[in-house]
Each structure stands twice: as C-alpha cells, then as structure tokens.
Amino acid sequence: QQQVKQSPQSLIVQKGGISIINCAYENTAFDYFPWYQQFPGKGPALLIAIRPDVSEKKEGRFTISFNKSAKQFSLHIMDSQPGDSATYFCAAGEEGFKTIFGAGTRLFVKA
Amino acid sequence: NAGVTQTPKFQVLKTGQSMTLQCAQDMNHEYMSWYRQDPGMGLRLIHYSVGAGITDQGEVPNGYNVSRSTTEDFPLRLLSAAPSQTSVYFCASSYRRTDRRSEAFFGQGTRLTVV
Questions:
Q1: How far is B56 from A46, CA to CA, in rounded Å?
Q2: DSSP helix/strand/coil, A84
Q3: In the prediction, which pLDDT does A74 show?
C-alpha cells in the first residue's frame, strides 16, 4: 500500500510556465512534508519543506500548498526554466524521521 | 566536510553472493537511513536508525540487514543477493531537532546489479 501518492508521473512544461505536482497521504501521524529534487546520477536534494501548521510556504519560485483536511499537498514551480528539468519527489515523515517518498515526477521544461 | 559517502559506486554480484554497502557521514547526524530507487517506484525505505545501537525496519526490509555501532557508519548488508535486488541504493542522514525536522542529506548512490 503506497502511503504517499504522487501525480503526474511525468510533466512537460513550456519555459516560463507553471509546473504543478500533487501528492496525497493517508497517515495522519505524518508531520513533515518535504520536496526533493533529483538530477540524473545524483542523490536527491531538499528543495523545500512544510509542516502541517501552515497552509503555504514560498521560497523563490517554489511554493508548497498544504491542505491538512484533504491530506494533500502540492508543489508549484513558477516561471519554470530548462534548468528545473529533473525528477521531483514529495515525501512525508513522522516523529522519528521515518520518511516515506512518493513515486516521483519527471519534469521536462521545454526551451 | 564530505557529507554522506557511499561505497562502492557500482557493483555487480552473482545470485546468492553477499556483500556490504558502506555509508559514512561526518556531520554528526543522529538519523541515518537506506533507500532503494527503482523506476516508477520512487525511493523506498529499507531500514533506518535513530542513533547508535538503534535500528528499525522500513517499507522493504526483507533480504537486508543493518547495524549502527557508531554515529558515523550505517552499513547495509545483502545476505544472499537476488536479481530483484538490482537497484540504486541511497544512504541518507539528518539531525534530530526538537523544534523542526532537518533536511536529509543523501549520498551519491550505489548502483547494484545482481546477475
């Protein structure tokens, strides 16, 4: 049973457009929701994270929207650039670090 | 400051062989974990540790053993390699904080092929 469901599997966006990736979770014990970015041949790296006591967090062009009642959260990449082309993972963690990842979204930004 | 170091980067094993994937971190992080990454499956948690001497199972622990004798090292042992264990393995570490969770730092990965 997949604890963190991520969609879409792949996404193609024009340069300057908005990329949106969605995630849903089941376990209400999750209290930490990070997004990771991974380039080919590299390990994932933290992009942005949110805790469930806020509904939105913005860092530069990246925004997390969080809906606690619906158990959903999403990543918005504004003004998408070719350098943003990568695989993005949402994740959810509970007390004690046990972080579970979504299946990933491969983003391609067309120049 | 090397961060999280995994060795080897590549490995080919024959079915039934055993081996140990090494992971070391120099950031004095309490938490360490092992993930495997397979196409379309994302990163799946194998085992994790909240401190020296303490380990626990993740989502897919079967066929793997871990131990945490020091804060720095968290080796992953494949007991009897199977083709289903062909994957890219990532080790990660992070601090434990009382007020907020710290980011996980990942190693560069070990690409394992079992033939």
A1: 23
A2: helix
A3: 98
Is the model's pLDDT at B104 over the cut of 90? Answer: no
pLDDT tens track for A76-93: 999 999 999 999 999 998
Distance between CA atoms of residues A15 and A107, nearest Å:
12
Confidence category of residue B102, pLDDT binned at 50, 70, 90: low
**DSSP-assigned states of every residue in B5-52:** EEE-SEEEE-TT--EEEEEEESS--SEEEEEEEETTTEEEEEEEEEET
Interface test with A, best of B91, B95, B101 (most A CBs within 10 A): B101
Max CA pair span of chain B: 46
Nearest CA in chain B to A41: B108
Q: Tell me the pairing of strands A99-101 and A86-94.
A: antiparallel
CA distances from residue A59 to A51, A55, A65, B101 in whole angstroms, order as listed = 14, 14, 12, 17
Look over chain B and give the mean of its residue pLDDT values, rounded to a whole number.
Answer: 92
